[in-house]
Amino acid sequence: MHNDLWKACNTCKKSINYDQNYWVCSVSTCNSKRTGLVFCTVNCWDAHVPMMRHKDAWAEERTAPSRQRHAQDQGHIVRSTNSVRRIIPSNPTDKVKKVINHETLVVASKVKSYIEVCSGMNTSGRVLEVLSEHIRKLCDDAMKAANADGRKTVLDRDFKKP
Known about the structure:
This protein has 6 helices and 4 strands. By secondary structure, it is an alpha+beta fold.
C-alpha cells in the first residue's frame, strides 16, 4: 500500500515501508543524511558496491521508523503542496557595497603574466580596475538571470557569451 511507503530502494526502487527492515552501506558517504542510500535487500546493496568502487564495505541492517516517529522527525520540514518557493535576495550595507565596488576581482599577477606572455607588453595598474568593473557587470547580470529562474545558485549558463 502506497501510504505505508517510507522510502524507495536506491537500486530496484521497491518500497521500503515503515517499521520494515532495510540495509545501508557501511561507507559513511553512502549512509550520510545528504546521500541517504537505502536498500531493500542485501542483493540490492551488493549491486551498488561495484558502481561506487568501495574497497571495504558491508551491509548494515536497520529498521525503518514508525509512521509517527517519521512524522515527528520531519514535522519542521512539512510544507503545503501549493506553497511557492520565494527567493529573497540579501541587500549588502552601504559599507559592504563600497568595498565590493572598489575591490580588485582579478589576480593581478595572472593578468599581467597573460598579457606579457601573449604579446610581450606591460600592463597598467588601471587595467585591473577596468577588468574588475567588467566582471562586476557580468556577475550582476548572471545573478539577475539566476534569480529570474528562481535559483539561489549562479550557474555558468547565467553568464551570456559575447
